[in-house]
């Protein structure tokens, strides 16, 4: 099923007699869901773009590439650097606006700019009863009552089918530089990233590769902005780590490639095994990585996000034990739930929300169970 209008989508959901499996571009095949496929690709196109107001509104099935091209023409971008899952999951198709918002897809810049949900100004969606709902608008601080915009971000289509999303966008920076620290151990890297993030130099990315492009550990710190400011901050960061092996990369294309590989977890693309995504306190990262005993790891968000490659069928949560964070199986199969089981009070709230927005349980049933 591929509705072409919001009204047609609402009627399709209202008439559904069984489960519906939602699909945008088909690139983020995470988790388990069953039912007849309901595609949102027919709801496509940029509804409104006002560069001067830093606002863009697009239908949910709009390819992300179309959004990025329109923004690029005006020297602007989506600040939250959404991840492209295709290489990691081996999927095809094109990422869409709705899928990005439903997954709250956010990249390395989250440590500075925030997540996808922080730039969503408004949404339109159809709930499980076939009702068309809208919340928010086209400016910041526009929500009265329940903030359904934030609720829809990261709900993976289990509360409603997005039809339209309004975003705040930002100008692209004039320059970018990456300060590269060679040879730091997995234990030392989080401290280095914390020092950089705690400095006054406005870091827009902090990541660590235990096996960098040259096969040796590499820690990356990114600064963006006006050219003179970027040059000054990069040098000050070099001074901050005096005594370490420090290089500065200023070439825009090489910088883009470095951070795209981190964003999309490129080192795992051609390697077999299950991929887990662990969100934790950055200071806990080294200990948790040791518990995992992973075949490969990648640290992002200053060490607060660990990507781990484990043998097929592995349960990262069993290896981690009790810890303050969340573990999600992004690639692979297993008996354990894909998403981190919620504490009982939170699980009760989630059930209540799903009962309210999808009383028949037809939207991606079981996906987040």
Automatic annotation (TrEMBL):
GO molecular function terms noted in the UniProt entry: catalytic activity; FAD binding
Listed Gene3D superfamilies: 3.30.465.10
Domain FAD-binding PCMH-type: 1-172
Classification of source organism: Bacteria, Pseudomonadati, Pseudomonadota, Alphaproteobacteria, Rhodobacterales
Presence of the UniProt keyword Flavoprotein in the record: yes
Keywords linked to the UniProt accession: FAD, Flavoprotein
Name of the featured protein: Glycolate oxidase FAD binding subunit
């Amino acid at each position: 099923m591929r509705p072409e209008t919001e009204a047609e989508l609402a009627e399709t959901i209202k008439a559904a007699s069984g489960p519906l499996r939602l699909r945008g571009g088909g690139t983020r095949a995470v988790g388990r869901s069953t039912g007849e496929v309901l595609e949102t690709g027919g709801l496509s196109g940029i509804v409104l773009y006002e560069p001067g107001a830093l606002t863009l509104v697009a239908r949910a099935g709009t390819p992300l590439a179309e959004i990025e091209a329109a923004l690029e023409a005006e020297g602007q971008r989506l600040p939250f650097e959404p991840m492209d899952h295709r290489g990691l999951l081996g999927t095809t198709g094109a990422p869409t606006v709705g899928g990005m918002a439903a997954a709250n897809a956010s990249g390395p810049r989250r440590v500075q700019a925030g997540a996808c949900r922080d730039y969503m100004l408004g949404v339109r969606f159809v709930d499980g009863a076939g009702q068309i709902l809208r919340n928010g608008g086209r400016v910041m601080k526009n929500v009265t009552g329940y903030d359904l915009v934030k609720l829809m971000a990261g709900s993976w289509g289990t509360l409603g089918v997005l039809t339209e999303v309004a975003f705040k966008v930002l100008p692209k920076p004039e320059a970018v530089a990456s300060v590269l620290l060679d040879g730091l151990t997995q234990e030392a890297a989080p401290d280095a990233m914390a020092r950089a993030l705690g400095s006054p130099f406005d870091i827009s990315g902090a990541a660590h590769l235990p096996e960098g492009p040259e096969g040796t550990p590499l820690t990356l710190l990114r600064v963006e902005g006006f050219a003179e400011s970027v040059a000054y901050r990069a040098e000050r960061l070099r001074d901050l780590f005096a005594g370490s092996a420090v290089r500065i990369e200023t070439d825009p294309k090489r910088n883009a490639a470095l951070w795209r590989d981190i964003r999309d977890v490129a080192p795992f693309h051609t390697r077999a095994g299950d991929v887990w995504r662990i969100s934790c306190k950055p200071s806990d990262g080294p200990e948790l990585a040791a518990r995992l005993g992973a075949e490969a790891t990648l640290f992002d968000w200053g060490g607060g996000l660990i990507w781990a490659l484990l043998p097929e069928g592995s349960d990262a949560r069993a290896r981690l034990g009790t810890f303050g964070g969340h573990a999600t199986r992004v690639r692979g199969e297993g008996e354990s739930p894909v998403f981190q089981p919620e504490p009982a009070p939170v699980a009760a709230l989630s059930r209540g929300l799903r009962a309210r927005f999808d009383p028949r349980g037809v939207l991606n049933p079981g996906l987040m169970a």
